[in-house]
Amino acid sequence: MPRPKSSAKKEASPPPGVAAQLHPRLNNWIAASFGQLTQAQELTLPHILAGRSVLLSSPTGSGKTLAGFLGILDHLVRQHEAGTLGSGICAIYISPLRALTYDIQKNLMAPLEGMGLTDIIRIGLRTGDTSATDRAKLKRKPPHILLTTPESLAILLPQAGWAEALSQVRFVIVDELHALAENKRGAHLTLSLERLARRTSILPVRIGLSATAAPLPLLAQMLVGTGRNCEIVEARMERRRRVEVLSPLRKNPYPPTGFTAQRVMQDIAQIVERNRSVIIFCNMRSSTESVTYRLKNGLPKLADKIEAHHASLDRDVRLEVEDRLKNGDLRAVVCSTSLEMGIDIGSVDCVVMISTPKGISRALQRIGRSGHSIHAESHGILVATNVNDLMECIVCAEMTRAVQLDEVRLLEKPLDVLAQHLVGLAMEGGCTRDAALETVRAASPFRHVSEEELDRVLNYLEAGGRSLEKQYRENFGKIVWVDGFMTVPSKKVEREYLANIGVIHTEGMVSVFLGKRRLGQVEESFMKRLKTGDLFVLAGRTVRLVETGVAEARVEDATGRLPTVPAWNANKMPLTSGLAREVARFRTELAARVAKETGEEVCDWLVERYEISTSNAQSILQHAFNQLRVSLIPTQHTLLIERFVDDREGSEPDLVQFFFHTLIGRSANDALSRIIAYRVKKAVGGNAMVTIDDYGFLLTLKTFQDLGLEEWKVLFENADPEADMRAALQDSELVKWNFRGVAQTGLMVPRNRPGQDRRIKQLRWSTEILFRVLSEHEPDHPMLVQSYREATHTFLDLPRAMDFLQTALSLDWYLVEVPVVSPFSFGLFASKIKEGMMLEDPEEAIERLWREYEKKVGGSADGSLR
């Protein structure tokens, strides 16, 4: 298969006079507006003008969006002057963010106005927010440039009214390609692009725009499809980038409860006070609300200039925040991942990240939101909230400065997405089984789909599958064959298909209204815990629950009162493999230096190498010393197992705790721990309570399950871990939970039925029954197969866990009896307390664990430990 080829490297220089190749009207506008093209634009433009597909990778602020559009605008201007400008769509711009399409629409008016072509070249916006009236107008008079989202493009493809307009597409721009590469939305889009290619007489030029990502050949392949060439342009505009690490920790790595949170908020408040505009990134939506609330209370004079922004807030609320940020009316916006991508947010002085974003690509993306212009410096501050977090932050900061990128992993052949698109092909008509296979395999994520897999999905779409076809063909049948061509059996199927396009499945969410204004959504499970009169935070506002109805709740303002913060069912971000490896390397070097150097020498190394304060370096050093007093420092060459029996009065008897320091990231530890827990059950019987974090896992066992070092080694042998994983998941809710989403995406249980309000309870009940039937009677059903695959490869990271098992026995193994929970296990044990729904707060737990350590081991080392 031909590999996408790179036509420009870091040291590449643009060919002379590229702008001169543009139509004079466009060239004059560029000269008047910018003076000259950016490097990204000059390197990309020749390929587009020559009709070659191209992937442009460059940092935020390098002018890459205009780089994608210049060749298209040139083509349209020349067509207009030649009198050949058609009435169909010439170019489609696709963004994963609706807000980005709004920005692009506004930004494209500038060159059109500059060239006097606003009445000639039409720009149209089609997203889920587009009104029915505007949709009808677009269909009657299609724009020359259509701005849309992956889902909206998929809706247009099978509609007869759009067929003629789409057949004339010559260019496709996919923005923020890196954000689509590893998920179902990206896989979904690649199939849409291949279906679009079937419609056009000339294969459209595909233009991919991506922030800094790796490996670029893989992204290029995803963009253009299997076996096609794609030029790769890296415009590594070396923007100045300042990355700092801030932590409230001083010499004591285990401060009293409340100290860290209080100091963190004080430090962030000072950053907000001394800057004009700050974005504060949290890793979870509940943290976003908590930080917003505390920051408003800490800065009462600026409270009306501090807002929250995340995906559960209403679109109007988000747009208002974005506009105020862009106009310089806000001093701080606290968000989760919602402002990571290229929405135009104006000038931002500084980006604060509370804890690391668990990966270098994401850190670069977030930091790039500050200094949002070509020549401005980007300034990012990583805020560490505990000593383990501090070690992760300093490694992340160093990798970010060096631009050591995480590798993208494409999501391979999701069968529910395939099912959805096969119904779309049936609606379009004229597609045989072989043509469908050819179309599907042309999309990079589906290039390895076998004929057997395709046939299984087609059989499911015909009648629901072997276990359902005899009695329920009419209920589940989505396609029929007529003279060898796929088609749909009824208009009802067409309506249901159009109402259920996409991969974002329905969760149990409750809309929250303050007066007539919809603030956003919280989870159904959270709302069920509240009673009338309870206070909580949403959109950074404290509100009081007034009443609840079907999928909605009414609240009133309760500013100044103490709230309960909502918790969304969002998983913690897992550490990427690259960052996990570097943290393991850091621990390895730290252990080696502590063993042979003085405390002062190690402290100097930390300060100079990682650009941190002396007090933070001393905190890390003290943490290492304390660990060595009872155990070892886990490294990349070891598998450290700590055995702990809690003999305190009142502790639960007959339990033994085993801490496994595996250092492979949260998702991989989740998979590995399930395999080992299952093997424990097979070997000695009984269940194990499992707790995980990024750096290891904890098994809480009964004393009859107690094992020695050699016995543990046997359980870590690389003997068919995939089969053990499948067996471990049989009684788990994880596969069933994934099946709900797969059944919706795969059109087995439609999210929406036109004219009907499908309640969450109905969806759950339907998927529960189907899951049981398929598990018992058709375990190879493609929707069930996809559910297991998602559970093990998306939610869990089975491949990385299997990689660890392949090399585990070659590591140096240590089983250490510890008299107390060791300092490197404090965070893991605190997670067990939190996940066990005990009343103790994790911060309180760590403080208690330290007190127990002091009591049994004798307090902190003096720093002279060798």
TrEMBL record:
<dbReference type="InterPro" id="IPR011545">
    <property type="entry name" value="DEAD/DEAH_box_helicase_dom"/>
</dbReference>
<keyword id="KW-0238">DNA-binding</keyword>
<dbReference type="GO" id="GO:0016887">
    <property type="term" value="F:ATP hydrolysis activity"/>
</dbReference>
<dbReference type="InterPro" id="IPR013701">
    <property type="entry name" value="Lhr-like_DEAD/DEAH_assoc"/>
</dbReference>
<dbReference type="GO" id="GO:0006281">
    <property type="term" value="P:DNA repair"/>
</dbReference>
<dbReference type="InterPro" id="IPR017170">
    <property type="entry name" value="Lhr-like"/>
</dbReference>
<keyword id="KW-0378">Hydrolase</keyword>
<dbReference type="GO" id="GO:0004386">
    <property type="term" value="F:helicase activity"/>
</dbReference>
<keyword id="KW-0227">DNA damage</keyword>
<keyword id="KW-0347">Helicase</keyword>
<feature type="domain" description="Helicase ATP-binding">
    <location>
        <begin position="45"/>
        <end position="231"/>
    </location>
</feature>
<keyword id="KW-0234">DNA repair</keyword>
<dbReference type="InterPro" id="IPR001650">
    <property type="entry name" value="Helicase_C-like"/>
</dbReference>
<keyword id="KW-0547">Nucleotide-binding</keyword>
<dbReference type="Pfam" id="PF00270">
    <property type="entry name" value="DEAD"/>
</dbReference>
<protein>
    <submittedName>
        <fullName>ATP-dependent Lhr-like helicase</fullName>
    </submittedName>
</protein>
<dbReference type="Pfam" id="PF00271">
    <property type="entry name" value="Helicase_C"/>
</dbReference>
<dbReference type="GO" id="GO:0005524">
    <property type="term" value="F:ATP binding"/>
</dbReference>
<keyword id="KW-0067">ATP-binding</keyword>
<feature type="domain" description="Helicase C-terminal">
    <location>
        <begin position="263"/>
        <end position="416"/>
    </location>
</feature>
<dbReference type="GO" id="GO:0003677">
    <property type="term" value="F:DNA binding"/>
</dbReference>
<comment type="similarity">
    <text>Belongs to the Lhr helicase family. Lhr-Core subfamily.</text>
</comment>
<dbReference type="Pfam" id="PF08494">
    <property type="entry name" value="DEAD_assoc"/>
</dbReference>
<dbReference type="InterPro" id="IPR045628">
    <property type="entry name" value="Lhr_WH_dom"/>
</dbReference>
<dbReference type="InterPro" id="IPR014001">
    <property type="entry name" value="Helicase_ATP-bd"/>
</dbReference>
<keyword id="KW-0413">Isomerase</keyword>
<dbReference type="Pfam" id="PF19306">
    <property type="entry name" value="WHD_Lhr"/>
</dbReference>
<dbReference type="InterPro" id="IPR027417">
    <property type="entry name" value="P-loop_NTPase"/>
</dbReference>
<dbReference type="InterPro" id="IPR052511">
    <property type="entry name" value="ATP-dep_Helicase"/>
</dbReference>
